[in-house]
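Exercise 7. Given the encoded structure of a 327-residue chain, write a plausible sequence.
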């Protein structure tokens, strides 16, 4: 964990060193933002829609020739930001969904859709200026859940009589609220720190809560944590605004239980502009929570009996064709 945190911090330090070479981009960014905010209510509202679609149809393939497959997924984002002379309020919602269906000649193998990715997040931060354009007293809110009901096999429908539901909407639901200080040294970079952040996990379904795999306390549907939270965010454009880079880092240490086991959420989005509003995006994410079980052994013959016996980090990567617009 210490080595991982060192690498993550080093990446942000590298981005910080490149900021001084972007003064021209700063001016253009401020100009675009001010134009976008000239609406009746003072809000800048926008969003993006990314699509991941893959398929291959084979009818009566020759022996050893493979089989058909169909995959569909995407990313949807919405944001609503407002900035006044003494305060700001930024809000964002994102939904990532992906599933695939494979065609096999073996009738004993599952036929349904296998879930690849399902993450829904809501973030909000309000801040008021502390006598300087760089320092704000702020409050940060974060919520995360998933959308589709999922079985232990990771399929959207049961593959055997033993297959059971392990996740669905609000099972789990993670909420974090943290008052603190927000430091914005420039338009591209921000650091938020709270010494008293609250983390709450809810597993609304009793049967799922009894599995004790989503971070809830044993015998309960919930988990409560109080700890220190650090968030860093970086965004910028390079090569004549053709490449957009967005990084986010969240670290949380729970004072009440094993504070040395720091929760990590590290998100990255690299976007290459193709045409106006259309881009090719690479998403990369790392997640670690010592109390949340992960699947580390996929060697079981029966996908409904995959063990949740691991503790470690989840790494996610995806390519998407995305269309973005500011309304």
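Solution.
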């Amino acid at each position: 964990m210490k080595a991982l945190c060192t690498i993550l911090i080093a990446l942000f330090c590298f981005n910080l060193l490149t900021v001084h070479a972007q003064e021209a981009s700063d001016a253009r960014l401020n100009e675009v933002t001010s134009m976008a905010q000239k609406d009746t209510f003072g809000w800048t509202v926008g969003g993006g829609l990314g699509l991941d679609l893959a398929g291959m149809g084979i009818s009566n393939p020759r022996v050893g020739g493979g089989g058909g497959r169909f995959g569909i997924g995407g990313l949807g984002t919405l944001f609503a930001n407002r900035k006044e002379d003494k305060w700001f309020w930024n809000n964002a919602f994102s939904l990532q969904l992906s599933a695939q269906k494979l065609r096999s000649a073996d009738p004993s193998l599952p036929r349904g859709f296998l879930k690849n990715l399902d993450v829904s997040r809501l973030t909000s931060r309000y801040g008021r200026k502390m006598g300087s354009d760089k320092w704000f007293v702020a409050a940060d809110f974060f919520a995360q859940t998933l959308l589709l009901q999922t079985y232990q096999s990771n399929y959207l429908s049961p593959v055997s009589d033993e297959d059971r539901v392990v996740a669905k909407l609000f099972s789990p639901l993670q909420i974090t609220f943290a008052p603190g200080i927000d430091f914005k040294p420039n338009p591209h970079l921000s650091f938020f720190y709270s010494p008293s952040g609250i983390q709450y996990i809810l597993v609304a379904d009793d049967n799922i809560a009894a599995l004790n795999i989503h971070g809830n306390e044993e015998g309960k549907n919930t988990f409560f944590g109080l700890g220190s939270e650090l968030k860093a965010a970086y965004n910028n454009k390079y090569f004549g605004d053709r490449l957009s880079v967005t990084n986010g880092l969240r670290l949380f240490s729970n004072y009440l239980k094993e504070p040395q086991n720091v929760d990590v959420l590290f998100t990255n989005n690299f976007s290459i502009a193709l045409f106006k509003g259309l881009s090719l995006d690479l998403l990369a994410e790392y997640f670690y929570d010592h109390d949340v079980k992960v699947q580390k052994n996929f060697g079981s013959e029966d996908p409904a009996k995959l063990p949740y016996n691991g503790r470690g980090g989840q790494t996610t990567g995806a390519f998407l064709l995305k269309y973005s617009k500011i309304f």
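Remark. Residues 1-38 have pLDDT under 50 and may be disordered. Students should compare their own answers with the one above.
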